[in-house]
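hey so u asked for the seq, here:
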Amino acid sequence: MGKMKRCVIVGGADIGSYGFIRENLRADDFVVFCDSGLKHMERLQVKPDLIVGDFDSHENPHLDAETIVLPCEKDDTDTVYAVREAVRRGFSEFLLVGVVGARLDHTLGNVSILLYLDSLGKKGTIIDDYSEMEIVSDTPVSVSGRYAFFSLLNITGRAKGVTITGSKYPLSGAEISCEYQYGISNEVLPGETASVSVADGKLLLIKIRK
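ran it, C-alpha cells below
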C-alpha cells in the first residue's frame, strides 16, 4: 500500500500570493475546500476532492465532487469540521491555506487546529503570504537560513525547557509564558540551521519568509 496522501484544507481568508501557495501543493494532494474557500479554486488551479460548508458565505457550486452540507448553527466552523472529517478518514499530514487573515477570531481558532492535530500525533502546517506555522512539541524542529525571522509563541499555557540553538538569540532550558512572549523575531545564524525543542509543553513556531 502506498503512502497516505496529504490533506490540504482551503479556507476563505484572503490569499495574496497564489503562486507561492501553488508551489507548495502536490499533484496527489487530497484537497478540501471549505465554503468561501471555493473563491480560491480557480486561481489555485486545483479541483476539490471534497467540499464542506454551510454555504452561508459562498453558494453551493454543485460541482461533480463529494459535498458535505453543514447546518449554519453548529459548534465546529466549516474549517474545523473539514479537518475533523479528514482525520476520521485517516489522513496524518495536513496543509492549511486561506485560514489566517483579517478575522482574528477565525485566525486564532484555525491556529488552534494545529494543536488539535499535534495532540493526535499528526503533522499540521499553516502557510500564508508571509509565514509558515507549525507546533513544536515532542520532536525538535529545524529552521533553515532561508527564513528571515522565526518566532516562538506560547499558546497553550505550558512551555518549559525551551532550547534554541543555531540562532542569534539562543535559549537553554528556558520557559516562555503566555504573559511574556519574548521569543519573537529570532534569526538563524549565517550558515547555520537553528533547532528548537521543548521539554514540557508546546510552542507555536512561526517562520517568516524572506
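Residues 136-209 form a domain with the Jelly Rolls fold (CATH 2.60.120.320). The mean pLDDT is 93.
lmk if thats what u needed
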